[in-house]
Amino acid sequence: MLRVTYLSRESSPFTSRALLDLLEQCRRNNPRWGVTGLLLYGNGTFLQTVEGEQEAVEALLDRIARDPRHTDFRILRREEEALRRHADWSMGFERLTDERLREIPGLRNLSLREFNPEFLSGNSGVVENLLQQHRSRHWDPLIGEIDARDRLIEDLRRALGTSEQRIEMVALLIESVIESGGGKALDAAHIALCRSTLAALRAEPTAP
Ligand SMILES: Cc1cc2nc3c(=O)[nH]c(=O)nc-3n(C[C@H](O)[C@H](O)[C@H](O)COP(=O)(O)O)c2cc1C
């Protein structure tokens, strides 16, 4: 299993609609190729981890690196490991804000302005913390101490993580509807996006 983490910058500002389109692509493609991962976005910067069979990951990264929607693509690390870290998501997503960063233990002094490729590529501890934090979202360390391998707790954690993802998708969808302009009718592409988001919300969580 290969896991690759990279940084990049948006070529021009991403609207909520553009982010939703991107997530749609991830959700459509990644399960087909057995790819899972995590995508963090903020301050015009992407931090993404992609994991799966080597061939699938290399092929995907090749496409992503050539995608004109972003630039300044730089690989931070390549890791060969037996286990996935983001098995619950075809592509976990979170949009970072200053408020969100303040909630993360150890990153309270990190401002969103520092979420940029220059700073992050020289601060691997911050990157690791950000990736780890999303992985263990809502994971109470006290519960972890009792028995991290307990199946029931694992299931609960997974369910919470999945609902978090869904909330993020709905938030993006609502924002993109607002962006589309008051009073104007929604176009066909927008309605298709609403339908596919609804389908994704109703779908069963991705099997690990
Ligand atoms: C920051 C960023 C992250 C991306 N992540 C993925 C991904 O995880 N999976 C994916 O299929 N495409 C991803 N893409 C899109 C790919 O570059 C490419 O457009 C897509 O794989 C083409 O798929 P399609 O032929 O189904 O449209 C990403 C693009 C950007 C800009």
Uncertain ranges:
138-149
- Major pleated sheet: 5 strands, mixed
Task: Specify the helix fraction band.
Answer: 40-55%
Quickly count the domains: 1
Strand content: 15-25%
Q: Which fold does the CATH topology refer to?
A: Alpha-Beta Plaits
Architecture in CATH? 2-Layer Sandwich
Find the count of extended strands (DSSP E, 2+ residues). 5
Biggest sheet: strand arrangement: 4-1-3-2-5
User: How far apart are the first and last residues' alpha carbons, in Å?
Assistant: 14 Å
Number of helices: 8
Give the C-level CATH assignment. Alpha Beta
Mean pLDDT, to the nearest integer, reads 82
Q: Which geometry do the CA atoms define? A: globular
Bound molecules: flavin mononucleotide
What is the rounded Rg? 17 Å
Q: Which structural class should the secondary elements be placed in?
A: alpha+beta
The topology string of helices and strands comes to EHEEHEEHHHHHH
